[in-house]
Design goal:
Structural class: alpha/beta
Number of helices: 6
Radius of gyration: 16 Å
Number of strands: 10
Strand content: 15-25%
Strand order of the largest sheet: 2-7-1-8-9-10
Distance between the termini: 25 Å
Length: 191
């Protein structure tokens, strides 16, 4: 993880003065846990969770909010302000600030979508088969969320069919029994 953090710090900025790094993968693939560890290794890098921009009605309809509220300000060297969605209240909460730090991590399904890739310094893909990731996510969330997962699986399949991320990933991240393995991604190996 230390080596990856060092490599990310040395990248040229991709969004104004910020090195925006996307961490994408199937729901349940370990993106949030990995991103938290990477943020810590980066000295507390800010993290945007795309679950904060998605809603029940717009699981993948958050691109406009991301570009307007986060990418735009960061690209101007300003802190971003966005209103995270409250999944229980089914409404957006109070504004939250995302600092324009040297490295900002964006994690979530769709972090490497077509509209976001031009602003990313690196795109990481959590390498775990979708069925394994979904099974892990369903186990994590419990039976109370089974209806949500049924709809989610359909929406995620459609999203990646229309706007795949993995082929554009710079790095693949595999979770090991202890730690992570980081390998060149399809975007690197296909050139």
């Amino acid at each position: 993880m230390h080596t990856l953090a060092s490599r990310l710090r040395r990248l040229p900025p991709s969004c104004g003065p910020v090195r925006l790094v996307g961490v994408d993968g199937h729901a349940g693939s370990g993106k949030t846990t990995f991103t938290a560890r990477l943020a810590e290794e980066l000295g507390g890098a800010p993290v945007l969770h795309l679950d904060d921009l998605a809603t029940h009605e717009e699981l993948f309809g958050w691109t406009g909010r991301l570009l307007r509220d986060v990418v735009g300000p960061l690209g101007r060297g300003q802190d971003a302000r966005y209103r995270p969605y409250d999944w229980h209240a089914r409404d957006f909460g109070g504004a939250r600030t995302l600092p324009a730090a040297p490295v900002v991590l964006v994690e979530g399904v769709g972090a490497g979508r077509r509209a976001v890739r031009p602003f990313l310094a690196r795109l990481l893909w959590m390498e775990l088969a979708r069925e394994d990731a979904w099974e892990r996510g369903m186990r994590r969330d419990g039976s109370a969320q089974s209806d949500f997962w049924d709809g989610w699986v359909r929406a995620e399949r459609q999203h990646f069919a229309e706007d795949p991320t993995k082929p554009f990933a710079d790095l693949l991240v595999r979770q090991l029994p202890e730690g992570y393995e980081v390998l060149p991604g399809p975007a690197v190996t296909s050139t």
